[in-house]
Amino acid sequence: MPYQDTDNQPAWFALKVRTKAEDTVRAALEGKGYQVFLPTYLSVRQYSDRLRKIAAPLFPGYVFCRMDRNRRLPVLMTAGVEYAVGFGGKLESIPASEIDAILSVTQAGLNAQPWPYLKSGSRVRIAFGSMTGVEGLLLKTQGTDRLILSIEMLQRSISVEIERTWVRPLTEQPRLNSIDELIK
Fold this sequence. Notes:
Largest sheet: 6 strands, antiparallel
Shape: globular
CATH topology of the largest domain: Alpha-Beta Plaits
Radius of gyration: 19 Å
CATH superfamily of the largest domain: NusG, N-terminal domain
Helix content: 10-25%
Distance between the termini: 39 Å
């Protein structure tokens, strides 16, 4: 039986797509009946004679798709799809919690932008507002507090501007070395 999320839906997978083909791939996969997620942000591009605002992908070169890992050929045969992301030749799904966190940001209409992937920093949880429960890393840049959300498998992150009063630090649980420590 293929891996499925707890809501009995196929798992999320990251698809590496051709450069600037994210929207085309999204539309093609939706036309085939797949649930696709292409998070975007408003980017300002400067041309010689004007500034233009465009919707750019938060994760350039990637589209997220719910699919059955054992029936992935129709997805991989879609024009613009290069491959499904995995490790050591094995297809790996993305935890639904990571996709849900990115989805919360895009639905809240907050100012998100691509961000370099970070492994260190203070882990925090949003305690108030439309993103309550979302966890990420807290970062302060140019006098603004930002929450960093990551898709670890892709080693890609986004940052979203937040109010400092929204976040609370995560308390780490002590690590147990044996079952005997749990019983004590």
